[in-house]
C-alpha cells in the first residue's frame, strides 16, 4: 500500500451524502407544499405531529419532537392558532401549562395534505428498488444505534 495515499474518510463522505440527500428532498417538498397547499414544511411538520397525538402535546414536547427551539414552535403555533388550524387547551391543575392540538379544520387540512405528501416522498424514491430501500432503512438503524450508544458513553 502506498503510504502517501489519502485516507478515504468514508464516514465523512457518508455523512455529507446523507445531508445532501436530506437537503434535496426537503427542497422539493418545500416547493411542492408551497405551490400546492400554500404552506411550509415547518407548518406541515407541526400538523403531522399533532395529528399523531389527538389529545394534544405540550409545547416542550412538540419542540422536542420537531427538533427545534421552543421559540420557533411558539411562533408557528401562534400563526396556526390565528388561522384556526390548532388550539391551545389549558391543562387541568396547572394554569401555566397548555396542550396544543388540531382543530377540526386543522384535521381536515392535514388529511388533505398527508397522502399527497406521502406520494411525493414515494416518487422521490421511485428509482430505488424496494429491497434496497429496506436494506438502507436497516443500515441507517445501525447508524442511529451507533450514534445513540456514543451519546450514552
Would you write up a description of this structure?
With about 150 residues, the protein is mainly alpha-helical. Among the domains are: about 10-40; about 40-115, Arc Repressor Mutant, subunit A (Orthogonal Bundle). The chain is about 70% helix and about 10% strand. The chain is built from six helices and three strands; from the N terminus they run ααβααββαα. The chain has helices at about 10-35, 40-50, 60-65, 70-80, 105-125, 130-150, and strands spanning about 55-60, 85-90, 95-100. It has a three-stranded antiparallel beta sheet with strand order 1-3-2. Helix 1 (about 10-35) packs across helix 5, helix 2 packs across helix 5 and helix 3 (about 60-65) crosses helix 4 (about 70-80). The relative contact order is 0.10. The model has no long low-confidence stretch (mean pLDDT about 95).
Shape: globular
Number of strands: 3
State the order of secondary-structure elements, H for helix, E for strand.
HHEHHEEHH
Main sheet?
Answer: 3 strands, antiparallel
Overall pLDDT: 93
The helix-and-strand class reads: mainly alpha
What integer value in Å does the Rg equal? 20 Å
The total of helices stands at 6
What is the CATH superfamily classification of the domain at 40-115? Answer: Winged helix-like DNA-binding domain superfamily/Winged helix DNA-binding domain
Instruction: Look at the structure and give the CATH class of the domain at 40-115.
Output: Mainly Alpha
Fraction of residues in helices?
55-70%
The CATH architecture of the domain at 40-115 is Orthogonal Bundle
In terms of DSSP E residues, the strand content is: 5-15%
Identify the quaternary structure here: single chain
pLDDT < 50 runs, ≥5 residues: none
End-to-end distance: 34 Å
Query: Which topology of the domain at 40-115 does CATH recognise?
Result: Arc Repressor Mutant, subunit A
User: Looking across the biggest beta sheet, what order are the strands in?
Assistant: 1-3-2
Amino acid at each position: 500500500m502506498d503510504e502517501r495515499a489519502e485516507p478515504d474518510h468514508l464516514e465523512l463522505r457518508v455523512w455529507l451524502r446523507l445531508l445532501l440527500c436530506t437537503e434535496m428532498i426537503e427542497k422539493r417538498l418545500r416547493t411542492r407544499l408551497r405551490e400546492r397547499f400554500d404552506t411550509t414544511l415547518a407548518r406541515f411538520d407541526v400538523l403531522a405531529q399533532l395529528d399523531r397525538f389527538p389529545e394534544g402535546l405540550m409545547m416542550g414536547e412538540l419542540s422536542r419532537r420537531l427538533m427545534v427551539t421552543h421559540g420557533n414552535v411558539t411562533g408557528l403555533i401562534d400563526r396556526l392558532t390565528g388561522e384556526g388550524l390548532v388550539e391551545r387547551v389549558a391543562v387541568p391543575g396547572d394554569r401555566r401549562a397548555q396542550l396544543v392540538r388540531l382543530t377540526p379544520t386543522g384535521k381536515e387540512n392535514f388529511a388533505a395534505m398527508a397522502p399527497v405528501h406521502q406520494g411525493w416522498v414515494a416518487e422521490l424514491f421511485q428509482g430505488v428498488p424496494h429491497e434496497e430501500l429496506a436494506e438502507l432503512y436497516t443500515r441507517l438503524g445501525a447508524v442511529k444505534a451507533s450514534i445513540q450508544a456514543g451519546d450514552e458513553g
